[in-house]
Amino acid sequence: MAHPASTHPRFAELQEQLDGLEQAVLRGDATAVETASAQVQAAMKSAPRPAEIKNWGATLQADMDMAALRLSQLRQTVVRASAQNDRVLNNLLPGQAKQPTYGRLSVTTRNGPGQAFLSA
Questions:
Q1: Structural Rg of the chain based on CA atoms
Q2: Could you tell me if 118 and 100 are in contact, meaning their C-beta atoms sit under 8 angstroms apart?
Q3: Would you say 77 and 25 are in contact if contact means Cβ atoms under 8 Å apart?
Q4: Other beta carbons within 10 Å of 33
Q5: pLDDT per residue over 52-77, tens digit each?
Q6: Which residues lie below 8 Å from residue 63, measured CB to CB, with a gap of 6+?
Q7: What are the beta bridge partners of residue 104?
Q8: Is 95 helix (H, G, I), strand (E, B) or coil?
Q9: DSSP line for 16-61
Q10: 66 by DSSP, 3-state: which?
Q11: At a CB cut-off of 8 Å and minimum separation 6, what does 99 contact?
Q12: Residue from 25, 30, 28 nearest 1 by CA
């Protein structure tokens, strides 16, 4: 995907990582999605602190907003693909299916807090 030249090297790196994640999702390659996702997370860990971002100009803030939007869209796509895979596995191999990654834990007893949290 062609992107306008970012005015900050961190955004250029993040866009590169997001491109890799997008390509892996489009290929349907789970291993590549996992690897690309880890690379995106690594790029985000090196992100500047909010105090530093406040001093940036409007262009850099717009770059950040676009990267955040793209990341959220890709995350949503990955979660949907995972849910579809879980449903297919459940239908084809019901004995082999595991609990969905993003599903709620089943509540069999009332042991207090923690029963309704995501299982991931």
A1: 18
A2: no
A3: yes
A4: 23
A5: 777 777 777 788 888 889 999 998 98
A6: 6, 7, 8, 11
A7: 118
A8: coil
A9: HHHHHHHHHHHHT-HHHHHHHHHHHHHHHHTPPPHHHHHTS-HHHH
A10: helix
A11: 105, 106, 119
A12: 25
Q: Tell me if residue 117 falls in helix, strand or coil.
A: coil
- Residues of the chain scoring pLDDT < 70: 1-7, 97-120
The count of C-alpha atoms lying within 13 angstroms of the C-alpha of 35, restricted to the half-sphere facing its C-beta, is 8
Find the angle CA(14)-CA(8)-CA(36) to the nearest 5 degrees. 10
| The model scores a pTM over 0.70 | no
Residue 71: closest CA among 120, 5, 33, 22 = 22
DSSP at 118:
B
Token output for 6: 């970012």
- Cα 61 from Cα 59, distance rounded (Å): 5
The tokens for 22 are 């997008």
Which single residue is written with the structure tokens 């390659």?
A: 29
Contacts for 46 with CB less than 8 Å, ≥ 6 apart: 10
- Could you tell me if 71 and 40 are in contact, meaning their C-beta atoms sit under 8 angstroms apart? yes
